[in-house]
Specification:
Radius of gyration: 37 Å
Low-confidence stretches: 1-18
Distance between the termini: 58 Å
Structural class: alpha/beta
Order of helices and strands: HHHHHHHHHEHEEHEEEHHHH
Strand content: 15-25%
Strand order of the largest sheet: 3-4-5-6
Mean pLDDT: 93
Number of helices: 15
Largest sheet: 4 strands, mixed
């Protein structure tokens, strides 16, 4: 019982010491005016000990300082006639306050209210201008981007006056998109479905039953040539990699339940192993003490150190191991292939002799871990597979623009390059906002 109590006390002391250290680090940053960084240390301290009163107090003080400094920045931006910048900074402060579950008090609250009132006019002007566009999504993004500020300024009700205009524009945009949905435009079909559903505009589409540019799965054929006594373990590792490739393919943009075929891939593993054992006679010298006659006194013996040699046979094992793993296939005329290879040499020795006087003990050979080396190359090959799939997708949909397939191509390219200029030019031209904004507004992938 005493030992248990001591252990509990030691753990508690260590936790207290760690938390104190985090608080002290936060205090140093606080003293330098680095409030954001200081807050991070106080938060870490509270993660370790949610009841740390000192960390709670310090964090509250630090967050108040962050708000004070933020309000100063808001005012400076506003006085510089940068109302958009002031509104964005104020939105960020309000979002942080909601996340922290804090409310401003006293002079701080008065200053914040003053700044909210100061940018209120800009919010109203911006909303009116955006509502007059033919595209409704810039207004929707404006409402999302400044949602905390709009709520704080109590403008939600006032913005309702634009709802009918926006709904009409959204329905028109839906119908314009729907006219393009046909044939192999599966990505455009999915986007238009989401878009029209949110604007409550019923539409019907005509697309093909199967996507000829995508696949329902991956079929892997294995080829193996394992010239090693440990072939079974190599075969097991190759099977695991096969499963990993199939799973990675299902996570790639090339996979679709509406695909028209199964992609064939060949996975190949080659291993060559050779071990040559030779024998070498070695000699270990050692010293023993023996009693020998004293040349000066025949009746006396002297202790004398005598050097001797112990000879024994040593085995030398020279190993050579080479590995090559690869995959290859044809993906709609694009070559899908990669390989990993390596060669390893190892010299190790062994014997089973034991002779204590010469400090000779049995020695075990330290052989190459063949399977580990094999798995390392397979792991790298598997890691490269997803990247290779994305490269080919990029080559097909992001490199050259097909003018008759622009919308579908932009949506497909966005799967791996959401920041691609071509992608965002199309989204801004079509919706007035970029791809990431549309992801937030409509949950597209």
């Amino acid at each position: 019982m005493k030992i248990s109590q001591i252990s509990i006390g030691l753990v508690a002391a260590l936790m207290l010491s760690a938390c104190t250290s985090l608080v002290e680090k936060g205090d140093k940053l606080y003293g330098k005016g680095m409030y954001q960084q200081a807050a991070e240390f106080y938060e870490k301290a509270l993660l370790e000990d949610p009841e740390d009163v000192e960390a709670k107090q310090r964090l509250a003080e630090t967050r108040s300082k962050i708000i004070d400094r933020g309000l100063i920045e808001v005012r400076m931006l506003r006085l510089g006639a940068n109302y958009r910048g002031a509104a964005s900074k104020l939105e960020s402060l309000l979002a942080s306050q909601n996340q922290w579950h804090v409310e401003t008090m006293g002079a701080q609250a008065a200053t914040q209210r003053e700044e909210v009132l100061a940018v209120e006019g800009w919010l109203k002007t911006e909303a009116k201008q955006l509502a007059g566009l033919s595209q409704p999504d810039p207004f929707k993004w404006f409402e999302h981007e400044y949602r905390n500020l709009i709520a704080n300024a109590q403008l939600t009700g006032e913005l309702q006056q634009y709802r009918d205009t926006l709904n009409k524009a959204g329905k028109q945009q839906c119908l314009a998109l729907a006219k393009q949905v046909q044939g192999q435009r599966f990505y455009l079909h999915e986007l238009t479905q989401r878009y029209c559903a949110l604007w409550q505009q019923p539409v019907s589409f005509t697309v093909d039953k199967s996507d000829k540019s995508r696949f329902t799965g991956l079929k892997v054929s294995k080829r193996e040539r394992f010239k090693t006594p440990n072939a079974q373990a190599h075969r097991y590792a190759l099977n695991n990699t096969q499963a990993e490739l199939e799973q990675a393919f299902q996570s790639s943009p090339w996979f679709s339940n509406t695909g028209s075929a199964t992609l064939s891939l060949t996975l190949e593993g080659k291993v060559q192993y050779r071990k040559q054992t030779s024998y070498r006679q070695v000699e270990k010298r050692y010293v023993v003490t023996e009693l020998k006659p004293d040349p000066k006194d025949a009746n006396n013996k002297l202790a004398t150190d005598v050097e001797k040699a112990f000879a024994y046979q040593l085995k030398e094992h020279q190993e050579t191991y080479s590995v090559n793993v690869s995959y290859s296939g044809n993906l709609l005329g694009l070559r899908l292939s990669n390989s990993e290879s390596g060669s390893y040499d190892n010299l190790t020795r062994s014997h089973n002799i034991e002779f204590a006087e010469a400090d000779v003990v049995p020695l075990s050979a330290d052989y190459l871990n063949q399977v580990q080396k094999f798995e390392q190359h397979l792991t790298q090959l598997s890691a490269d597979f997803s990247g290779d799939l994305n490269k080919l997708w990029q080559q097909r949909y992001c490199s050259m623009v097909n003018q008759s397939f622009v919308a579908e191509q932009a949506l497909r390219c966005a799967q791996i390059e959401p920041n691609n200029d071509f992608v965002n030019r199309w989204f801004k031209q079509t919706f007035g906002v970029d791809y990431k904004a549309m992801q937030v507004l409509y949950g597209i992938q």
